[in-house]
Amino acid sequence: FTNGEVFDSYGYRGIDFSSDDRMLPNSMLGYAPRIRGNAKTNAKVEVRQQGQLIYQTTVAPGNFEINDLYPTGFGGEIEVSVIEANGEIQKFSVPYASVVQMLRPGMNRYSLTVGQFRDQDIDLDPWIIQGKYQQGINNYLTGYTGIQASENYAAILLGAAVATPIGAIAFDVTHSEAEFEKQASQSGQSFRLSYSKLITPTNTNLTLAAYRYSTENFYKLRDALLIRDLEEKGVNTYAAGRQRSEFQITLNQGLPEGWGNFYVVGSWVDYWNRSESTKQYQIGYSNNYHGLTYGLSAINRKVEYGSNDASHDTEYLMTLSFPINFKKNSVNVNVTASEDSRTVGASGMVGDRFSYGASVSHQDYANPTFNANGRYRTNYATVGGSYSIADSYQQAMVSLSGSVVAHSDGILFGPEQGQTMVLVHAPDAAGAKVNNTVGLSVNKAGYAVVPYVTPYRLNDITLDPQEMSSEVELEETSQRIAPFAGAIAKVDFATKTGYAVYINSKTADGNSLPFAAQVFNQKDEAVGIVAQGSMIYLRTPLAQDSLYVKWGDESNERCSVEYNISNQLRNKQQSIVMTEAVCK
């Protein structure tokens, strides 16, 4: 699917060439204004929003610029304090308001999509090309444009997003040209306006207020293709409703701490070729008290068919959610009630691998409906199942999901599948748990797959050796990797196999061996180290051997030690072998 940032989203089969914000450092993601100022001395600069310190740095005398603020939501004035070396403080404010189209000054975002249109309701699959470009011009202005082209259809969009002291505003115009078989060519325009504002004193967040108006002859890409598809099938094109105007608003009102949150959501849509219009409004309140999450809401829906015909529906909803703890396991209970229906459900985990859910619903005009589901996570796949029963039907379903990774040494099965994954290779480390994740451990071949990692960011991959064989040692238990998006990156962990041997050793004259001195075998390979208390530690596959300890370049800064642990190895339950030997 296309991303829907400029034009409406639709399915396609093809290629996409685009910028990826995930490649940027965290401090450059999203929108935040660039701050410019002047310091008279070596000064400290503090940046605050709503009284909270969000950035701090030191600057040299002269002009300075801060362009790596982290994004902090949709708005709220930014206060800057420049604290000079002599204690003098100069303060100034930077307006900050944002809509989704806004970019930082100097940043850009682009995409080019080429492929065949794909929609389950439309049999046509013409080739399409779509491009878009956004450019952050300064703190207050972002420009954007886009094009769409297909067989008998073309559209171009121009727009701008502006940050003002009274909020952020985005406005764009789309012009379309469409040709049809059984009607004249059509051209029209669509105008879209959106607004966002955080009212700091009252903590009111008007996150989205959008209005769109389209002229009678304007067609979106999908609308044009749907009409052409209906024409070819000989079906009345009335089924393809063309929007005339649309209004949406979302308002969130944060209440004082502990009092929860109040919200209002509304939408209104009407059409050119239908007398139908749809209005929907929702108001709600939610809060949390000592683990009990509760909410109240009312939803009003109204569909008008001309001046005298309408359907109207109002629904009141109450939700409760709270955990119940049973020893090591927790059950989450959910209760939902409206005017004519009630639902009680429970979900939770048994152990570390099995999750479940069950619910009973009852409506005033029907008998109860029962639903149950469960998922079990094995080392190789996730097995799931669900069952539903009501008056008129029974339904059962079984699912099997996971990942299959083919690599140079074979095929690996995993219980989860992610877009970006890491293949872990740790020879002989079977049983080592990966990232402390249940059901994710190194298999007998020495491999494991980590299903969910963040692309273009450093991810810590750790191995826990607790469940490994005592005859295997990891040379390192943690590595960091930053994979590309969609890649399966490989991480190799070096291991040593053999007996873990501690040799209590001193020199021939009774002196302790130097701490951290290296231990070598007869092939001059480093095999161990001198630990505290003149204790030699090494991992070796040999029951007896001759070693030498070296702590300098002089001939008197080395000695030889021989060991034989054959007798100790008769006790197979020993994971660590202790012995004594003189270093001569």
Automatic annotation (TrEMBL):
Ranges where the PapC-like C-terminal domain occurs: 503-565
Species whose genome carries this gene: Acinetobacter baumannii
Membrane topology: Multi-pass membrane protein
Protein family (similarity comment): Belongs to the fimbrial export usher family.
One GO BP: pilus assembly
Subcellular location(s) per record: Cell outer membrane
Main location: membrane
Coiled-coil blocks: none
Protein's UniProt name: Fimbria/pilus outer membrane usher protein
GO cellular component: cell outer membrane
Taxonomic lineage of the native organism: Bacteria, Pseudomonadati, Pseudomonadota, Gammaproteobacteria, Moraxellales
InterPro entries xrefs: Fimb_usher (IPR000015), FimD_plug_dom (IPR042186), PapC-like_C (IPR025949), PapC-like_C_sf (IPR043142)
Keywords: Cell outer membrane, Membrane, Signal, Transmembrane, Transport
UniProt cross-references to Pfam families, sorted A to Z: PapC_C, Usher
MF term (GO), any: fimbrial usher porin activity
